[in-house]
Each structure stands twice: as C-alpha cells, then as structure tokens.
Amino acid sequence: MGKVFDAAEVAQHNTSESCWVILYGKVYDVTDFLSSHPGGAKIILKLSGKDATEEYDPIHPPGVLEENLRPEALLGTVDENTLPKVEETPAAAEEEQKEGPPPMEWLLNLDEIEEVATKQVSRKAWAYYYSAADDKQSKRFNTEVYRSILLRPRVFVDCTKCDLTTTLLGHQLGMPIYVSPAAMARLGNPAGEAGIAEACRSFGAMQLISNSASMTPEQIVADAAPDQIFGWQIYVQSDRAKSVAMLARINKLPAIKFVVLTLDAPVPGKREDDERAGQVGPPPPPRGSLKTTDELKDGTPDVSKGGGVGLQLFAGTDPSLTWHETLPWLAQHTNLPIILKGLQTHEDAYLASLHGPQVKGIILSNHGGRALDTAPPAIHTLLEIRKYCPQVFDKLEVWVDGGVRRGTDVVKALALGARAVGIGRPALWGLAAGGVEGVKRTLQILSDETKTCMRLLGVERVDQLGPQYVNARVVEQQIYDGPSGLEDLRKAFKAKL
Amino acid sequence: MGKVFDAAEVAQHNTSESCWVILYGKVYDVTDFLSSHPGGAKIILKLSGKDATEEYDPIHPPGVLEENLRPEALLGTVDENTLPKVEETPAAAEEEQKEGPPPMEWLLNLDEIEEVATKQVSRKAWAYYYSAADDKQSKRFNTEVYRSILLRPRVFVDCTKCDLTTTLLGHQLGMPIYVSPAAMARLGNPAGEAGIAEACRSFGAMQLISNSASMTPEQIVADAAPDQIFGWQIYVQSDRAKSVAMLARINKLPAIKFVVLTLDAPVPGKREDDERAGQVGPPPPPRGSLKTTDELKDGTPDVSKGGGVGLQLFAGTDPSLTWHETLPWLAQHTNLPIILKGLQTHEDAYLASLHGPQVKGIILSNHGGRALDTAPPAIHTLLEIRKYCPQVFDKLEVWVDGGVRRGTDVVKALALGARAVGIGRPALWGLAAGGVEGVKRTLQILSDETKTCMRLLGVERVDQLGPQYVNARVVEQQIYDGPSGLEDLRKAFKAKL
Amino acid sequence: MGKVFDAAEVAQHNTSESCWVILYGKVYDVTDFLSSHPGGAKIILKLSGKDATEEYDPIHPPGVLEENLRPEALLGTVDENTLPKVEETPAAAEEEQKEGPPPMEWLLNLDEIEEVATKQVSRKAWAYYYSAADDKQSKRFNTEVYRSILLRPRVFVDCTKCDLTTTLLGHQLGMPIYVSPAAMARLGNPAGEAGIAEACRSFGAMQLISNSASMTPEQIVADAAPDQIFGWQIYVQSDRAKSVAMLARINKLPAIKFVVLTLDAPVPGKREDDERAGQVGPPPPPRGSLKTTDELKDGTPDVSKGGGVGLQLFAGTDPSLTWHETLPWLAQHTNLPIILKGLQTHEDAYLASLHGPQVKGIILSNHGGRALDTAPPAIHTLLEIRKYCPQVFDKLEVWVDGGVRRGTDVVKALALGARAVGIGRPALWGLAAGGVEGVKRTLQILSDETKTCMRLLGVERVDQLGPQYVNARVVEQQIYDGPSGLEDLRKAFKAKL
Amino acid sequence: MGKVFDAAEVAQHNTSESCWVILYGKVYDVTDFLSSHPGGAKIILKLSGKDATEEYDPIHPPGVLEENLRPEALLGTVDENTLPKVEETPAAAEEEQKEGPPPMEWLLNLDEIEEVATKQVSRKAWAYYYSAADDKQSKRFNTEVYRSILLRPRVFVDCTKCDLTTTLLGHQLGMPIYVSPAAMARLGNPAGEAGIAEACRSFGAMQLISNSASMTPEQIVADAAPDQIFGWQIYVQSDRAKSVAMLARINKLPAIKFVVLTLDAPVPGKREDDERAGQVGPPPPPRGSLKTTDELKDGTPDVSKGGGVGLQLFAGTDPSLTWHETLPWLAQHTNLPIILKGLQTHEDAYLASLHGPQVKGIILSNHGGRALDTAPPAIHTLLEIRKYCPQVFDKLEVWVDGGVRRGTDVVKALALGARAVGIGRPALWGLAAGGVEGVKRTLQILSDETKTCMRLLGVERVDQLGPQYVNARVVEQQIYDGPSGLEDLRKAFKAKL
C-alpha cells in the first residue's frame, strides 16, 4: 500500500484486461471484479484509469469496497499532484453561480419543495428521484386519487386540541406519517439517510431504511433517540448469503424494530427518465445489432447496457420469492416482525392476514408508480380490502404509501383504514432542497396540514378517524368489481399447511 | 397630547423595548400592546418608528385603537414636515398611470368584473380575496358543480312577468341573493362595507356583516333603508367578554335581524396565496431552526411568523364551540334568531333542525373553499339533505353560498331547495372594480341573469322553482352514499335534553 | 320627392327632436318612428344625419321601410356629390387586401369552413353567428354529446348502395338534413337566405326560413324548384296584427309547407360576444347610474342600451305564448301544419303529442345554445323521450338541431329516433365562407360523410337506422332520471278539453 | 424497344389524348390506361410527359406495370442525358442536411420512435401513416382505452422465468404480438415489407401482408425462416378475376398460412391529413362547380379529384361482400383458413363463430381508427363478447389490434381474452425511423415491456393471463348495454342453411 502512482500510469489501465480506478486517493485493480459488479461492467469501464470518487461516493455506503475486493486489489495511492486539474467548464462555472435554495420556511407546500429541489440537484439525481414506470400514469394517479375523494367536516366540535400521536406495531410515535424506504439519499444531499433520520427524530416520525441506502444502517441509526423507531427494507438477493449477512447486521441494531420485505418490484420497472439520464454524454452507444427475445429469455435484467441508477441498484435481486419459501427462510434469520410491502390486491392482503403472527403488517403500495405502470394506487387496494375482506384490518396493520402531498391526503388514507402513511419522494425532495432542514420542513408542513384538516373535520385523535369523514364514492365506482376467490385462497392455504 | 414630535425622534423607538407608531398624525406608544395584538407582534414591529397609517387603516374599523390602548399611550402628534417625503419610485409612478376601470356598464359578467378588480387592487388585497385553502380545489369545485347541473326549460309558459322577491326569516326581500359576510372590504375600495350596503339597498338585497369587517356595524347600517335587512356574523372569541360586548352593540341595531354563527372555520385554513403576499419584500425571514410538532401542539394558530391577512384576522377565535355549550351561551346574550353557517354534512343539518326555534336557518357553505380543501360544495350538502333527511327543509331555512357566478347557478340552488344564495367574493370584486357602482353592477347582472333563466324555464316566482327544473344526475352520482346514522344522532340529542 | 338635399343640411337633423337619415340615396324623416323602432331609438340616433345604408341594408329585408314609415316621411333625395368621401383608413386598406377564401373544394370539413368564414366576415357578423348564451356551455355540449356516442358498425353487409332520401311531413326530400331558421344571412354574404335556398335546391334539402331573415320570404322562395320544400318560422309578435299579416303572406306561398313556432327563446338569451361587438367604437356609453331591479321589472328586454344584433332582433316578440291560447290563435290564421321548435323535456314532447293533428312535429333544440346556458342538448331530450314516452315517436315527427358538425352526428341522431337533423350556424358559415358555393360545399360534406358512415355501418336507407347502431351509454347515464309526472300532464290536458 | 427518345419529345405527350411517362428509364404510352388506373387519371396526367419513377416506385410493387399495360405500350428508352438535371432547391439542400435518426437503441418507447420517424419521412408518407378518419377520435380512443384499464399485480410469485411464446392457429410463435397488414411500407423506407419480415423473423413474430403492400407477396416471404408465419390480407376486388389471380399466387406460397378478409373498410374512411397532403403544391384545383348528391349516388369512391394515398389504394375494392356470398366464393379459390378482420360488435363475432370451421379466427379492429370515426376500440368489442357471448372464445381465436403502444396494453388485451395483439402504425414508424433495425427495436421494446409487465403481475406464461389480472371497470361502464338479439341471429343463420 505504500506505493505511490502517477496518474498517467493509472490511466493506462483502462481496459477489461487491466482495469484500475482511483477512489478516495487510493488506487485499486478491479479487473477481477468487473464481471461481478452488481451494476454491470460497463459503468466501471467508463471510469477505468480515472478518479471515480465523485461518481462512486454518493451511491455506495462505506464498507462496500472492502466487502467486495480482495485485500491485494489495493495497489497503493495516487500522487494527487499528477491528477488532471478539474477544468472549470463554462457549464460548471454557471453551476457555481447557481443560487442556493430560499429559506425553507418560505416554502409553503410539498410541490414548492420539489420545485426548489429540482433546481438544486444534478440531472442524474433528479431523474432517479422523479422517474416512474413507462408513462408515469400510476405516479400521477397516486396523487389524483386523493383529489377525487371529498372530506366531510363536522361542525360544532371542540377542536382546541389535536393530537397526531399514534402507535405502530406497539411503538409510540409522534405522527402517523413515516418516511418510506427511498434509496440513494446522498445523491441529493450529503446529509443522506442519516439526515432524514435527524429530521424524523424531531417529529417522532418513523423511518424505513432502504436496502439500497447510500449509507450503512449503522450510520443511519447512529444518533437515534432512545425512542426512535426504524424499519429495515430487504430486497432478498439471489446470493442469499449476502442477505443473511445483512440480516445479521440488522439484528444487532436495536433501533430497527422490524423488517420490510418489498414485493412490488421483483424485477425493475422501466423508468425512462432515469434511463435517459444514463444516456447523457458522448460518445453515444454504438449502433450495434440489437438483442432478440431469445437472448434475453433468462430473466436477468441486463445492466450491461448501462441504464439508469434504478436499473443498476436492482442487480442481484432475487425474483423467485414465494409465500411458502421466503417467509420461513426469513424466520430462520431474524426474529423481527415482518411487514410485507407492495401489496396491490385484496387477495394478497387476505393471504398476508393468514400468515400471522410472523407477518404483522402490510404496506399497500405500487412502489411510487416506479414498478408497473397502471398498477392501482394504494387507495384502490384499501377500498378493495374494505369491500371484500375487511377482517384484514383486525389481523394486520395496514399502511399505505404513494402520492401523498397534503395533510388532507394523510387524513383520507387514515379515515379509510390505514394506520400509517408513508412518504418517499417528498422526503428526498426535502433533503435535496435543504438538507436536514428541508426534510424537517417537509414533515412540518405535513404535520401542520394534517392537524388543520383533523381540526376542521372535528377530530381530535388519529384513532377517531373513520370512513364517515370521507366521501370516496367516485373512487368506489372505479375499483375492481370482479369475483374475489377468497374462499379458494383460504382452502389452498390450509391445504399447504 | 399637546406634544409635537419630530419624526426622527419617533424613529428611534423601533424595538420591542420601546415601540412607537404614528397613526393619523398621532404618536402612540404601543410597547405594552405588542404581546396582545391579535395579529401578532411582528407585524407591528415591522412598522415601529414609522407612520403606519397606510397599512393600518384599511383593515381596522374606527374605535379599535381606543378600545385596545390605554389613554396614556397617546403621546402627542407628529410634525408632518419632518416626515420623510414619499419618494415616487418608478413602480409607484407606473401605479399612478394605471388606467381606471372601464364603465361598469361595459362589464357583462362576474368574471369580467373580477378581472377588472384584479388590476385595480393591491397585491395584498387580491391575495386575501382570491386565496383559498391548499390547492384551491374546493374553490374550483364550488363553481364547477353548477356547470355539471343541467336545466330543464319548459315551453309554452307565459313568461311576461318574473318576480325575484322572496321572504327570508319572514322579512320581505327584493331578491333571493344576498351578500355573504366577507371581511376587509376597505382593502379593495374605501367605500367599504357601507358601500356594499348602499348597493344592496338599491336591489332590496340582504347583507351579512362580517365579524372582521373593516368598518363598524354601526357605520355599515347607518344609512340603511327602513326595510333593509342585515345579519351579523359572529366568530366567538376565546375572550368571551369581547364577544358579549359586541353582541350588546348588535342588539341595539334594529337593522340587524339575526346573528350568523360561523362554524366552518374554527381554525384557519391554509391560504397560500395570502401567505405568499405576506412574504413579499425584504428582508426575508431569517433561516432559523424550524418549530417541531411538539412546540405547536397547543392548537393556537401561530401568527408571530407573519402570515397572510386571513391568518391575522383569525387570532383570538375560539375553536372550542359545541352544540351544547355555545347555543345556550348565545341565547343569554341575544334574542336575535340564530343562523348556523358552514354546515357540510346532512348529519349536521339534521342536528341543526333539532335546535329550533332558536336556530332558524342554516347556511351550507365550505367557506368559499377557504377553510378545508376538498370539502364538499354546498350543492353536495343540499343533495345529501334531499337524500337523507328532506324534513330539514320544513324545519329550517336552508341557504347556500360558494361558487355562484351566474344567474343559472342561483336558479339551480333554489330549485334544489335553497331559499337564498349568498355571494362573497363577487361582492368584493365588484367593490374593488368600481366601488358602489361595481357592487350594483354585480347585483344587477345576477338579477338580470336570474330572471332571464327563470323566464326561459317558464317560471314566474321564486317559490315555483323545484327539482323538476334541473337535471343534477351527474352530481347525484358523486355525493356521499354511506350510512347516515341519523337515528343515533336523534337518540343522542334526546338523551342530552 | 323631387327635392334634392345637400348632405350638410341632412347632417343638422341629428337629434331626437329632428332625426333624418339617408337610405339608398333617399332622405327620410324618422323622428316619429324613433320610439317605435323595434331595435330601439339609440341605434338610429347614432346614425342620424348620416347615410345609414351600409348599416341598414344587411339586416332589413326590402319593404320594411315602406311598412313602417308614413309616405310623407320620404323627404327627397340626397345630392351624392355632397356626401363625404369615404376615407380609406389604413384598417380599411388592409381589409381590402384581405385574401379571398380558398376554393371551397379544398375545405374538408365544417370546422375548416367556419375558420375560413371567420376570416371573411365583419366582427359584427362573426359575433352574431358565433355567440351563444353566457359561458357557451350548451353550445359546446351540443357538439360534445355526439362525440361521446359510439357507433356499432356491422360487417359483411353489401354497402354498394346508399340512399339519403327521406320524407318529412309526407314530402319527398333528398336528404334528412335541413337548414335551421338562422337569421341575418346577408350579414355574412350578399347572397343571403336566397343563396341558401339555391344551395338546398341542388341537394333536395329542406330550408326553414327565419322570422328575422334579412330577405323577404317571397324573395327567398322566388326561384324554388317545383319540389323544393320550405318551412317558415314564426316568432309571435306582441302586436299580433303584425304576425297575422305575415301569416297571410306566408299562406300565399305554396313552397312553404308548414309553420315552425319557436318556443325555446320567449325572451332573449345573453349572448355576450354579440353584445361586446355592439360595444365597439367610440364614444363609450356614459358612465351613468345603473338601472335597479325595480326599473326592469316589466319584463320587456331593454334594447335602448344598444346591445348586440340578437337583442335588437328580439324586440317585439311576445313572451306570453301558451298551449291553450296560442295554438288556437294560430289555427285561425293558417291551415298549414305546425311544428313546435325548442322542446327540451320529455314532458313537453309528450304534451305536444296530445295536440295533434294540428301539431305534426317537434324540433328538439336548445336554440343552438343561444338562449339558456346549460340547457340540455337535443340528444338528451331525444333519449329522455325514448326512456319516458317512446309513443311520442308514433304520433309526431321528431327533428333535432344543435351541434351537428359531422355526418356521424347526423347518423347518431337518426339512429336514436330523429327523422331529420337541422344545421344552423354551419349553413351561415358556409354562406359567409363562399356564398352559394360555400353552402353547397357544407351540404356536400355532410352528405358525403353521412353516406360514408351509413355504408360503414352496413345501412343502405335512412329508415333502417335504429338504436342498435349506436352505443349511447355514456349519455344515458347523464340524462334526467327523476319522476316524469306524465300522468298528471295527461289528466290536466283532458280536464281542459 | 430499341428506340431512344429525347426527353423533350416525351414532354410533348402530356395530355389525355397522348399521355407518355418515363419509368425506370423506359418510355411508356399510357393513354389507353388512363381510364382504368385504379388511382384515377388525374394523378397520371400530373406526371405525364415526365419521369414519374420517384412518385411511382414506392407505392407499386414490381410487376404491376407489366400486368396492366399491353406490350406495345413500351415505346423505348429515354436518353438520360436529355433529362432535366434535378436542381437542388434550397429545400432539398436542407433536406440533405437533415440529420439521420439517432441509434435505435437510444429510443426507449414507441412514441419516441414515431417522433423520430415523423422527422425522417416525407410529408406524404407521414400523412398516409398518421391519418385517421374525421376527427381521429377512434384513433385516440384506441390508445386511451388501455390507459383506463388498471392492472392487478399479484405478489410473492416466482417470476424468474417469463415466456412469451404462444400458438396461433396451431402454429408456434415467439410472441403474441404480430404486425398488422399495413400498406405502403416502402413509402417510409426502401426496406419495405420485406424489411418488416426480416425483423419479425428475429422475434418469431407473425406478419400479415397487406393487400396494398408496396412489394409482392413473393418478395416479402422470399427470405422467410422455415418456421416463419405469414397471413395474407385480401380486399376482394369488384373485378373478381383479379382477386382470384392473387389467391392463386398466394396458394403457392407455403409461408402464408391463412387469408385475412378485411371487413371494416368496405368503403374508404375520410382521412383528412392524407387528403390534405394530396392537395399540396401548385396549381390549386380549379374552383369549379361542385358535385351534388345525385351525381355521387353510385357509391364508387371518386378518386378523379385526387385525394390522398388512402383513397387511391381503395379504388377497385368490392363493397358488396356478404356472409352468404363471399365466404363460399373464397372457399372455391383457397383452402387456407380464413380470419375475418374488422369485427366491431358482439353480434358479428357471434355470427363468425357460426361459420366454422372455414372461419378460424376474428380480428377485432376499427382499422386503426381509419375507417369510421367514433367506431369502438377493439377492447370494447372484446368486453362485449365477454358480456354477451363468451362462448365465442371457445370456437374462434380472437385477435385484436389498434392503439397498442406499451407492453401493458398487450397484457391487458390478452388478459381479457385476446390470443394475439396486432400493431400497425408502430411497425411502419419503426421502419421509417430506422429500417429493419427500427422494426426490431419496436418489437424488442414491446417484448421487453410485455415480459416486465407479466413478471410484475406474477405471470409466467401467456396462457395464464386472465381477467383477474385487470380492473376494466371504467370501460365496462361504457360499453354497449342494449339488447343483443343473438337468438334472432342464430335463427336467421339456421334458416339460411
């Protein structure tokens, strides 16, 4: 490790035969690692022979390097004086002059925060956060469905007091709003997921840690308050040993109270904004012959072509999970309660309710519209459960996420049976707009709006909200109306026991 | 009071330790008053040491100063020669050159009047009048719901005559259209609420006086015609003595025939346009640490941060009103009939109908969309009452407001059971566009349109309008369709007797 | 009449005390006529002392002058040399250079024809033709309702032949499309209503002559083919003698086969575009005190203020028509069959069906959206009749108009039970775009489109069209669904016999 | 044929009396052919005396010339040196500089491909491909209907594998997506229909060959893989001998497995974009007197006026087809299975199901919205069949086309009962954007999207898709709800046997 390299020498190792990169001033030989990089070889080769720190840092939590490279891969350090000076391109200069964000206090709603964040972040970060599947119809519908539900305010009710506290899985929380497991927070702001944790702490809000967080779980929960609550999201890896190792780490972190198993994205959705951002910059991909169906038949998402951040993060995810294999496997490796995320039909909600007590809750979610376009918004699934199998609410906690932008949205979801409401992009936009203060502002706005809404409805406590406070008739006329087959599901489940 | 101050001396008293202001040429020490100003200390401090008359005048009725300051607070007068000359900024010069409004006769509909008014008034006034809660969806829906109702004109009916006269609470009126209690009229035009009263007089129209009027009730009714009818709107104050004092004043004004108790805004809605207008101008608020949920938990709207006109007007309002406490309290302090304003569910309409004979009427209203966004328009509540408890129409007069912009809107509301229809913003826009003549033009347009509509329907008198003249099927498919629980309400009411 | 006046002398008679005008080179004293001008005194006074020919000509059919002025009102002729030369203003010059319309054959649909016409005609003509009541919602809905109906094409049907011929009231016609009684054709093109008649002749199409045509009925039918069919529209005048005189003239014209009694506009609608066009030009109306409700209570539309063409045409119309007075009166003055125009509810359609055999047909119409805004489109009424009282179709011919722009619209109306479909504005736009050729092009387009549609549906003859060829479900969900009270109507009708 | 002409001499034969044209360097006398040209005489006369190769080539397959002209019509060759040099107009120069398309790999969805294609092709080609009937409402609705259907993803299903293979009419295929019979491929790219065939080969996709292909069937299938499947579309000609001759050629091509009989366009729709493109260029058509209804009564589309490509292609098509005449006639001339294309009602689907075994399948189609505007999208007909006569699915294969732009659209159609889904314009846009690679990219995108969708639904094989995977409630509320008359159809069918 004592060896000091000249940048020019490193620069010569820029092929798949000999591929070196500089990271944090150190020189690594990653030739052997090329084929096993979850994000594909291509993206490494693009940076081969160069200092890759700026690209690498915001999307890799510490420790990843050490976990994946043999010790001898570290060849030495680079002589920083030999590195090419970063030329200030006119674009970069302009970038410099970019105004900072306005005071967070001036931002009145979540749309304004997104607007400010859009101006603050890189195109790559924007594309990753903003993107959704295909034509972004589910993303749009997630928000619009709330607007088609009307509220039913009662009058002459003392609304002096309003209390947002609630309990989730038996834990006391300051509000029924939590931060969903959104990946790559450092892409938007260096405070990263730990910054979101800091903001949550101020509000007693729960945070779900993404499997693809840009910081380690240990970092994120490091400054947790004694009563602060976290969940940890798992994407089970095809290489199960990796998942087992992660679970072992999670089991040791007392702030993490449960595991969230994501089910709505077993394969990656097609997020075109994200993919387009990955296309930027010369030279364009060669106009080669295209892959045919047969070559792609194996089911592994092909990241060798590049693709967006989303596609790269997906590499390694196991698409073969099932009720009967995965839940028992998970029970072997953790005693934490399980929350199933991404249920989109009443049938699956019902099935989950048969899997207690291991499964303690479900999150109705279409992955923020990022997986399957024209998948139903969580409110549809919530209304489906109310219609076909309301007993699910007695057996499981039902949480929802997707499209929440106003306190009235929070109240509507709670009134229809949700116990908690997650926000994904809004937390990232808040972080991107103003760091920790931006996330706080996001939570404060939602908290204030939720309380104002509850007061104007004549409701003091979260547990008093019920369907009598909303008119969801327009949505009720749109939800699934076919046969449910619950009886068959029940029988099949019993038969397998 | 004989002392004459130099402006420079006054200017030195610009802190919370010693805070002087100049109003109408007089110098006041308002240091002690800072903490009890309903609109918050901040807005006074911004003007401390200066002549605050221009800011103060249009939003405070006469007498407020005297009521709230001890006599010794009046220190003397200012030497007007020492006041800084108002520099004519280019913007101000441009303002000067602003064309006056066109002749009111040229304005053909209420939208055109709003357009003209928008150009005439200050940004602050525009923001206060125009604003509505959150995304202004209820405001928009208020108008759109009328457009989705079709009329059913009958032919071969003699429509030579058309008579808009009606009776409300037993009083004869020239038209079933009244002016809702809209605050801060002088912000738009110096004629203020008394100007609205003058216009109403010409048309035999009823006016409801806002609790936050920019003139005193005595001023507003001063020139009332012998048969002119007013109602007075009360926001009950947490300091009940203030409300009792106001009621005592109202009881002495024979032109005021009833009290309107506003229930749809126990806490202020979030009117972002209004708040944004309050943000204008340097310096921006310091980027301080934000309040967390806990600090805001007491339920008092926090006006110390500034906020818009709407938020300031709200200060002091009692959010703890209930059927069982407030109505008896009100009966102790006035014998006037009570109208409950802001009902938005058939349940509350039914409850109100049990509280006769004190309660003589209800106003279905979502506060012009200014309180809770996605609250239902009055037409929804009207249809809910028709569906669940039509007997309410026999026990109470049912009035509606919100979104009325055309005579056809008036006719639709009346046909569905409303006895009268209120206009809020249109009266203010009329005043702002052309003073008294502007309000007259507003009422004339609505009157003409309403009569044209009735004639084309084949209807001569207001009391002949009924549901057979409208096709509200599209709206009927959207209103609440859940259980009503009226029986439980009835039992609970009886039990408490 | 021998006297020749100097223009300067005429110019001095420009007050209500002495009011002269020049028309077609003759000088008239119209002082006595001022108060009885159906269009109001104001519009004459504006032209007093001047040559009014250009304004007068396109909206008055020949003979009107002689009918309304005493012989001694004709004072003599004007010396044309003394008339002021028309100065060519830059605007006029530009007008001159205006390109003529493209060849009519190039225009592919009715929207393109309207577009071309819009560029060809004066603002006044455009405003009169284009305008509709209030917010033009019924006008828009008239067209949109057709777009929400789907067709149901049958395949494997021999569609070699397609025949648009039909019979209306027993008369053979070339197509089931007729020209509605649209007024003021010469405003758009000098060919006027006679030009429309010429175009109709080529297609065997029926024409209804407007009561306010800019040519006399005699002129319009002068060149009629032996088998050409006309109807004459009557607006009954308050001065019944005028209507009786007109009916006497009509009775003498064999080409006119029936009388159309318009019922959907007993008082004028509020057509703001038209009124705005009437406002153009200096000086603006004085900013006087506005009329209050009481002054307008008599029910006579007040045209003294000016107003648009539509309002002026309305003057003198009797708003007091009823089933029991007007129909017998009409029977006294003509033996022609009666068609009632402007029915908008199934109730009135049913009532009409009780008034045979005098009443032979009804036209479902909301007056092109020009009378009452948010009145239902004819298709609504057609579907109401199908739902509540289909027997009406056996007793009366049911025609419809309003919003038809495509052959598919024609087919949809016929399939749902209409025997004929009227076009109003399209005929005027055609005339304005290209005179007689423009109207022919309009009829040709509709004819071609209608035949193409029928062929693609697998339908050869008009009488084979039926509801099985359309899917009107979306509209069916929007039409009136309340009680009908037909039984009460029947009883009341019988009682009055 | 030895004679060599001077271009100047050819140029003199430019009238209907003597009409010569140059094609591929040869000189033809086409005077006698003028009256029998299916595309009308006018378009030939426009090119008479000139080199017509550039106009002729992309829309006529080889052999057409020889089939239609007598041998003596070939007069000789032209001296190429005497031909006028093509002047490079500035527009042409600009055209030259037009950038080529981006690498196909960069195009992420079908809309982007259309966008690129729009820039690559001539206005004429764009207009022909893009155009649809009238207001293009059916075209728009074809796409929108898919967006109003939601998906119902099931979770915890192993989605490692996903297999798009299927069988159609017993033939094994790589995907359930086929290329519809879209005409005039060489107008967009010289690779033409054979290029589409090449792309299909890579994906195992089926191709239907248009009756109006710009290449011969023999050329198109020339390079077919052993297991590659084609269908051939027939528009039966009024001159049946021509159709019989074509069928004889088809019968000899083993790659063609079935005949598709198009029924949804017995007469041409009105495609205004296409017609407008045909209008371009001086001189404009003379402003002659227009044809009246009577002159057009014979039912033959009149192409003498010019019109678009679509109208010209239509010439000669027999509009008199019927169930009882045409199917037996077809059986006489081919033993291939018959697919009926263009069914748009459940009635006709039911009728088709009675015509087995000759009729083996039906294609629900509104001809891409190009025939009858406001005809229902295929999804409507699919849902109608499900509702009224689901037994049809057991008797026939049901394919659909129109509006498919995403893999989710494909999955929705399959889930609702379609066995295969056709794409028309997308294949042409792909070809126009990038030739064979462009079509491959189109198929690859659809294949990838379809597989991603199936995986995210938890479905491995095409035959597992069913209605439980979609929520089509919004569409179900819009489809036909009237009587079906299936019993009458059955009886009538039996009676004719």
From TrEMBL, chains A, B, C, D:
Keywords, sorted A to Z? Flavoprotein, FMN, Heme, Iron, Metal-binding, Mitochondrion, Oxidoreductase
**EC numbers, comma separated:** 1.1.2.3
- Ranges for the region named Disordered are 269-309
Q: Which cofactor does it need?
A: heme b; FMN
Please name the Pfam families in this protein's record: Cyt-b5, FMN_dh
On the tree of life, the source organism's domain of life is Eukaryota
Q: Which residues form the Cytochrome b5 heme-binding domain?
A: 2-79
UniProt cross-references to PROSITE patterns, sorted A to Z: CYTOCHROME_B5_1, CYTOCHROME_B5_2, FMN_HYDROXY_ACID_DH_2
Q: Which SMART domains match?
A: Cyt-b5
Q: What class of enzyme is it?
A: oxidoreductase
Summarize subunit and interaction data from the UniProt record for this chain: Homotetramer.
Q: What is this protein called?
A: L-lactate dehydrogenase (cytochrome)
Query: Which lineage is the organism of this entry classified under, starting from the top rank?
Result: Eukaryota, Fungi, Dikarya, Ascomycota, Pezizomycotina
